[in-house]
Design a protein that fits this description.
single chain; 808 residues; alpha+beta; nine-stranded antiparallel beta sheet; seven-stranded antiparallel beta sheet; 29 strands; globular; binds alpha-L-fucopyranose
Length: 808
């Protein structure tokens, strides 16, 4: 089905009407319905709340489509509309108290620790203490007279075309609306059509929750919304913004009265919505939003709807179609998406922790496949070359005061957004993260110098549109390894793509400067002689009976060790900075090592303070297991086993993203059933009817994390065979939940070392795998206890293996 002209059949197809939900009718509709719904979220009623609406996004623009009949709301966003303005968040004089704080922490008494935290709060916290907030832009409001009583209603989001569609009929006349956000054309497009000529009648308004905004008309067919963001926290005016919506009809008329457009007796109408702000970059907001919006509109206004649509679909599918997945299907897959989620919710899984209890909630395997693809869809929709990166809500937000300001939280959430980027073959979506790193190198260098008299750059646990890098909120802002974690993404990009120009021009400079920061920041612990982070803490966790600050948390040291490893390897590979490599190598040997505690657990802190069965949402000390690649049985069996003890203590997730982190962690230790249990609990307990993830409120990270996690259950490639070259081991189906997904196919996943991998399995066993070498690197392929070594591969060649790993 494509295009407005083909909708007649759809509207009157009994498979999509209410009648079809009756049992008898279902029988005759089953097959086409299931096939048609494979990549669709769909509903039999409009969204009432924002959390039920369906998202479309072009990276820069996002919209939530409610699918109302008499009254339709399309809420939209633009990725640079934030409160605030360019600023340096470092509190003047912050560096003056650093040594005193360190001394107090080293003293280690309850009183001295309390003093260190008080002093930090007073003198080192950012100014202001909170960073700025992502903002909603506006709403299109359409009114369709007489469309209160409708039949054959359906609204859907097709992940394959990235089009949200609403269809229904009124007194036998069919109507169809399509909405998409076009990356190539930089606009949100709405098309409203009916096969009965001259039946499209509606009025259109545009407004915004910003009190400073006003909407005016222009000519007969355009509305212009302008405004400026007011920051209620410090009562300042910031970014100026403008959106324009133009209506083009086929047949009929469009007229304007004040700020309302009215379409009468048209065959179809297309709404072209553009939006822009005065943001030029994080240091400059002198742009002209009106000129930008006019230019965006000029680009699309003479392009026919079908051309806009075709170009949008082609652009989306170029990324989206690289991976296909089939985990099997069942009766449940015929139901509307909200009903499928409700079924999972009702099958409540008891939280018994620690546990090895498994679940056989396998009634709807297709829902897991849909959810996997939804995460990819959401990343394509929220992060494209040239846009801001995906924030806590992707690009979708209706609130003036969104939870955690809808920023970029770098002690897990921001990085989790990008877990699907390389592995699920949408590497381009990773670009905005690398762009923000370029900015953070500049703002983070100022912070490193002013707060710590250090070279290089530092990022604490959050950043925003203004590239804030100082510690925010409270003492848990005191965490210096956000930048090190971002560097991990650059290194991973190189491992997946082998792009040496990227390594040399973008990754290495960022890694080198981040390493320089730590060379200067780390201090020697007098008792042990090791280099430690101080002040710092393990994200958002206070050791039992103590205060938050403690040196050398396991995660800190893992991230720094990994950063030094990558930097040394990259410098050596690029033939650069020999002396620097020697310095780093020497410092690396002195980094405080991971510790195994009295219960056999990997210690979260430098001392053995862990409480057994601490089920905290953060999995920080397990960074080396995932997303890091350091903890493998091959590299260090003792640490790997200790990590497993801690993982078991942590038990089930709580927030959506904490399930999303547990999925790949359990996959990395090969426990398919527990990984699956986390996925199912996330779907049952932390998933909205539109499949958006819930932290408490909606938060996109859990969607992205789960998609990365599902991929990790099916394919892993983090074990390095030869540390001197890009020679990895690919593990096929390392954590396949056999009872839930006995048969399946996945095509197009990426592996480190530059490989594309497809697999089919039957009765829980690998049937066939196809491994395409993209760079000509060697690779080992493992399935179960079998390993095949491909010591040389031919670039561009596909190696087909059977279930015994014999090359076909
Ligand atoms: C961290 C988490 C919270 C939330 C916030 C955005 O502070 O601990 O659960 O996800 O980030």
């Amino acid at each position: 089905m494509s295009g407005p002209l083909s909708f007649v059949a759809r509207v009157f197809n009994p498979c999509v009407s209410r009648v079809c939900l009756g049992a008898a009718a279902l029988m005759s509709c089953v097959v086409p319905q299931v096939i048609a719904n494979d990549l669709k979220l769909w509903y039999a009623q409009p969204a009432v709340k924002w959390e039920e609406a369906l998202p479309v996004g072009s990276g820069r623009l996002g919209a939530m489509v409610f699918g109302g009949t008499a009254a339709e709301r399309i809420q939209f966003n633009e990725d640079t509309l934030w409160t605030g303005h360019p600023r340096d968040y470092v509190r003047p004089g912050a560096g003056e108290v650093l040594e005193e704080i360190r001394r107090l922490i080293n003293e280690g008494t309850e009183e001295s620790l309390k003093k260190s935290e008080d002093l930090f709060r007073e003198r080192m916290m950012s100014d202001p203490r909170r960073q700025k907030a992502y903002q909603p832009f506006g709403d299109l409001r359409l009114t369709f007279p007489g469309h209160d009583d409708v039949a054959d209603y359906r609204r859907e989001l097709d992940l394959d075309t990235a089009i949200a569609k609403t269809t229904y009929s009124v007194n036998g006349t069919g109507y169809e609306r399509e909405v998409f956000a076009s990356y190539p054309d930089n606009a949100i497009i709405v098309n409203i059509a009916s096969p009965a000529n001259g039946k499209v009648n509606f009025s259109l308004k545009m407004d915004s929750p910003h009190k400073t905004s006003k909407t005016e008309g222009e000519g007969d067919n355009t509305l212009v919304l302008t405004g400026q963001v007011h920051d209620p926290i410090d009562d300042t005016m910031g970014l100026r913004f403008q959106s324009r919506v133009k209506v083009i009809t086929s047949g009929g008329d469009v007229t304007r009265s004040g700020d309302t457009l009215t379409v009468a007796n048209a065959n179809s109408a297309t709404l072209l919505l553009v939006a822009a702000t005065s943001f030029v970059n994080w240091q400059d907001i002198s742009g002209d939003p009106a000129a930008k919006a006019q230019a965006h509109l000029a680009k699309v206004e003479s392009k026919p709807y079908q051309a806009l649509r075709t170009d949008h679909i082609a652009d989306h599918q170029k990324l989206f179609r690289r991976v296909t997945i089939d985990l099997g299907t069942s009766e449940a897959a015929k139901l509307p998406t909200n009903e499928r989620i409700n079924i999972v919710r009702r099958q409540s899984v008891p939280t018994t922790r620690p546990t090895t209890q498994t679940t056989s909630l396998d009634a709807d395997p297709q829902l897991a496949a849909l959810y996997f693809q939804y995460g990819r869809y959401m990343l394509i929709g929220a992060s494209r070359p040239g846009t801001q990166p995906a924030n806590l809500q992707g690009v979708w937000n209706e609130l003036m005061n969104p939870p955690w300001e809808s920023k970029f939280t770098t002690n897990i959430n921001f990085q989790m957004n990008y877990w699907p980027a390389e592995l699920t073959n949408i590497s381009e979506t990773h670009e905005p993260m690398f762009d923000i790193i370029d900015d953070l190198r500049v703002s983070g260098a100022r912070t490193a110098k002013a707060m710590y008299a250090s070279r290089g750059w530092v990022l604490h646990h959050n950043t925003d549109l203004w590239r804030g890098t100082a510690p925010i909120n409270n003492i848990d802002g005191m965490w210096v390894v956000g930048g090190a974690w971002l560097c991990h993404h650059m290194w991973e990009r190189y491992q997946f793509t082998g792009d040496k120009a990227f390594l040399e021009q973008r990754a290495y400079p960022a890694m080198k400067e981040a390493s320089e920061f730590f060379l200067d920041f780390l201090t020697k612990d007098e008792k042990t002689g090791y280099l430690v982070t101080n002040p710092s803490h393990s994200p958002e966790q206070t050791p039992p009976g103590r205060l938050l600050f403690s040196p050398a948390a396991a995660m800190d040291m893992q991230l720094i060790r990994a950063l030094f490893d990558y930097t040394i390897e990259a410098a050596t590979l690029l033939g650069k900075d020999e002396e620097f490599v020697q310095q780093l190598t020497a410092a690396h040997k002195q980094l405080y090592p991971d510790q195994v505690g009295q219960h056999g657990q990997l210690q979260e802190w430098w001392q053995d303070w862990d409480a057994p069965n601490n089920a905290h949402r953060h999995m920080s000390p397990l960074w080396g297991l995932y997303p890091g690649t350091q903890f493998t049985p091959e590299a260090d069996p003792k640490i790997y086993e200790a990590a497993k003890v801690l993982l078991k203590w942590r038990g089930d997730g709580s927030t959506g993203w904490s399930f999303g982190w547990r999925i790949p962690l359990w996959a990395r230790v090969g426990d398919a059933e527990f990984a699956y249990r986390q996925l199912w609990m996330q779907l049952g307990r932390r998933t909205l009817p539109n499949l958006f993830d819930l932290c408490g409120p909606y938060q996109a990270d859990g969607n992205y994390g789960a998609t990365g996690g599902i991929a990790e259950m099916l394919l892993q490639s983090h074990v390095r065979v030869d540390p001197k070259q890009q020679y990895y081991r690919i593990d096929l189906l390392p954590a396949l939940p056999v009872s839930a997904w006995p048969n399946g196919t996945i095509k197009g996943l990426r592996a480190r070392g530059g490989f594309e991998v497809s697999m089919t399995w039957e009765d829980g066993k690998l049937k066939q795998a196809a491994v395409t070498s993209l760079l000509g690197n060697p690779v080992n392929v493992r399935y179960g206890d079998k390993v095949v070594e491909l010591k040389s591969t031919e670039k561009g060649k596909t190696y087909t293996l059977n279930g015994d790993l014999a090359i076909q």
